Amino acid sequence: MKGIRIVDGLQYCNWSEEIFRQLRAGGVAAVHVTIAYHEDLQETIRNIAAWNRRFERFPGLIFAGRTAADIDAAAAQGRTAIFFGCQNCSPIGDDIGLIEICHQLGIRFMQLSYNNQSLLASGCYEGEDSGITRMGRQAIREMNRVGMAIDMSHSAARSTLQAIELSDRPIAITHANPASWHPARRNKSDEVLRALAESGGMLGLSLYPHHLQGGSGCSIESFCDMVARTAELMGAERIGFGSDLCQDQPDWVVAWMRNGRWTRDSDYGEGSAEAAGFPAQPQWFRDNRDFPGLLEGLRAAGFSKADIVGIAGGNWYDFFRTSFGPSSDMI
Amino acid sequence: MKGIRIVDGLQYCNWSEEIFRQLRAGGVAAVHVTIAYHEDLQETIRNIAAWNRRFERFPGLIFAGRTAADIDAAAAQGRTAIFFGCQNCSPIGDDIGLIEICHQLGIRFMQLSYNNQSLLASGCYEGEDSGITRMGRQAIREMNRVGMAIDMSHSAARSTLQAIELSDRPIAITHANPASWHPARRNKSDEVLRALAESGGMLGLSLYPHHLQGGSGCSIESFCDMVARTAELMGAERIGFGSDLCQDQPDWVVAWMRNGRWTRDSDYGEGSAEAAGFPAQPQWFRDNRDFPGLLEGLRAAGFSKADIVGIAGGNWYDFFRTSFGPSSDMI
Question: What's residue B331's pLDDT?
Answer without folding.
Answer: 52
